[in-house]
Design goal:
Chains A, B: GO terms for molecular function: oxidoreductase activity, acting on the CH-OH group of donors, NAD or NADP as acceptor; zinc ion binding. Chains A, B: Keywords: Metal-binding, Oxidoreductase, Zinc. Chains A, B: InterPro entries: ADH-like_C, ADH-like_N, ADH_Zn_CS, ER, GroES-like_sf, NAD(P)-bd_dom_sf. Two copies of one chain form a homodimer. In chain A, the strands form four sheets. In chain A, strands 3, 5, 6, 9, 10, 18 and 19 form a seven-stranded mixed sheet that branches. Chain A has helices at about 40-45, 95, 120-125, 140-145, 145-155, 175-185, 195-205, 215-225, 240-250, 270-275, 290-300, 320-325, and strands at about 1-10, 10-15, 30-35, 55, 60-70, 80-85, 85, 105-110, 115-120, 125-130, 165-170, 190-195, 210, 230-235, 250-260, 270, 280-285, 310-315, 335. In chain A, strand 18 (about 310-315), helix 12 (about 320-325) and strand 19 (about 335) form a beta-alpha-beta unit. Chain A is an alpha/beta fold. The N and C termini of chain A lie close together (about 10 Å). The longest helix of chain A has 13 residues, at about 290-300. Chain A has two domains: about 1-145 and about 285-335, Alpha-Beta Complex (Quinone Oxidoreductase, Chain A, domain 1), CATH 3.90.180; about 150-285, 3-Layer(aba) Sandwich (Rossmann fold). The interface of A and B includes residues 229, 240, 242, 277 and 285 of A. Strand 17 of chain A pairs antiparallel with strand 17 (about 280-285) of chain B.
Chain lengths: ~350, ~350
């Protein structure tokens, strides 16, 4: 097959690679229906996260099961499935507590920007849709694999409840789907912090009630003004920089909740500051597997349309252009069709 | 009157001071029945927290209302009352969310190691007991003012629920009352981390099921062994140093809760580490006012006896010895009788 590899900063190649094989009896091979480029793929693409050898890229996937290992019991060839970027057994105590992305057997699933993908721990990782989806549902189903699941977890970690005021820091695809998630969970007011017109528009479509264009402490000052000096009940941090994290913490009210899902890069938090801010802090790699049945159901029933975050669709062999467009912020998120 | 002042490191003086007066119409003057020395008083006593001028000491108090300002409606002279170390109006939005220690009008109550104390915002701050307590209840009622309320908040922030495994980091009075609080909230297993025999004994009396004497990463390794490699559901951090905070975070399971109430001194947290630990983090100055009615009731009914943390009782004029005994860890907590 031909698949996507990163060789170094901004050096994406679509090249010949061996077809994936069943390596363990719990594996499955999935024929990818659609893949995409993740905001977190841009960290190594930009060289901020260094790599030591060529890396197979892509960790968001959905498609039809091609083959399963001898110990796979529930997943069947021919099923349309979606899985998380962390394979999990969905059975260990960590999974039972709902933290499948930290499963005691967790394994990162890489190499999804390709026609075929090996998924470990298939029974614990993959969730089948009720049937073979129509083509128009596929982008939305694909988002459940990571970007929607991650935005959803940001809202869960930020304790979004009916009637709360939520703030979303970050207008990438995760932030935008954080808006959608907060809306689904009943937030009354959803303030999206964004300075990009196309992203503001999508935030409003997904349920944002207000847009704040200021950033950093100016942004915090606007949120304080809008909440009578109190701050927000729930803040979704969807970036992962020092500035965005402090912006999120300072936007929360005393006793409010910050859910952070942007992979932190060089973020340092002062214990004393957190103490006197009185915030709740929770985050980490989203346990997408926990949410997949719910998210698939919402998409399947047409209640949400998270696939709108894809504003660029390319054939898989043009993946390098997909990275460039996101790097230059010409695209929110690139959909890749094998 | 004669009252307690700190002039500099280890320089406690009991000296003539003017009697406190009603300064605002919402103030009350309380005649102190018993006061005490707090673990947090040791930070300035030891010079770790610097002071720029002589400081009236003491912020834990209970006693009989002597006089009230013209706008005080509910608190009456002659009532026996307990208040928090932060005065609060108990009415603003922050208070309504249960964070009275961050009240929009919050004011620190200092100078309680004295026969008389001015308490601001009396109606919002003070809670009266059902009647005048017998002398033997007074130490336990006094703990509700801070050390019990703070241990209780640690358990609330650590999400202690029926059946959980809780770990308590710190065997000072707050940690010990964190054990008592976790027991009240139904924790099934309570592991106290302590290497001092007298404190271990009290921890066991308060409901600890296990004692771990190791500290730091050795302590974490013991907790992991005892929890089948999973970690604890709830961890109460009751110290406030970098080591104790990391010990607490590493003792928690993925998705577990760390409640921290030790005032952090020089604590820095790595965003990336918190992210992959997947813990919930919450803490701050305990909103004692929220818990006072419940805690007074538990003491009044004889269901808890938190006053046992006082293992040294001195007349107020020997307050300097009370500080020395705690500084040298000869006493867990000193009770002072005016």
């Amino acid at each position: 097959m031909q698949a996507t590899m990163l060789y170094g900063p901004r050096d994406i190649r679509f090249e010949d690679r061996p077809d994936p094989q069943i390596l363990k009896p719990t594996d499955a091979i999935v024929r990818i229906a659609a893949a995409c480029v993740c905001g977190s793929d841009l960290w190594p693409y930009r060289g901020i996260q260094t790599i030591t050898e060529p890396m197979p890229m892509g960790h968001e996937y959905c498609g039809v099961v091609e083959e399963v290992g001898s110990e796979v019991r529930h997943v069947k060839p021919g099923q349309f499935v979606i899985g998380s970027f962390f394979a999990s057994d969905n059975a260990c105590p960590v999974c039972q507590h709902g933290y499948q992305s930290s499963c005691q057997q967790a394994e990162f699933v890489g190499g999804a920007q390709a026609p075929l993908l090996r998924v470990p721990l298939a029974d614990g990782t993959l969730v089948a849709t009720p049937g073979i989806p129509s083509g128009e549902l596929i982008p939305s189903l694909l988002t459940a694999s990571d970007v929607l699941g991650t935005g959803w977890f940001a809202a869960v970690a930020a304790n979004v409840q009916r009637g709360v005021t939520a703030v979303v820091v970050g207008d990438g695809a995760v932030g935008l789907l954080g808006v959608l998630s907060a809306k689904q969970m009943g937030a009354e007011r959803i303030i999206a912090m964004s300075r990009h017109p196309s992203r503001q528009k999508l935030a409003l479509e997904f349920g944002a009630t207000d847009i704040v264009t200021e950033r950093g402490e100016d942004g915090v000052a606007r949120i304080m003004e809008m909440t009578n000096g109190l701050g927000a009940d729930s803040v979704l941090e969807c970036v992962g920089t020092q500035e965005s994290m402090m912006q999120a913490i300072h936007c929360a009210r005393q006793g409010g909740y910050v859910g952070y899902v942007g992979v932190p890069h060089g973020v340092e938090l002062s214990g004393e500051e957190l103490f006197f801010e009185h915030v709740h802090l929770h985050g980490g790699p989203a346990p997408v597997r926990q949410f997949l049945p719910k998210l698939i159901d919402l998409v399947w029933q047409g209640k949400i349309n998270p696939g709108k975050v894809f504003d660029l669709t390319l054939p898989l062999d043009q993946v390098a252009e997909g990275y460039r467009a996101m790097d230059e912020r010409r695209a929110i998120k690139t959909l890749l069709i094998p």
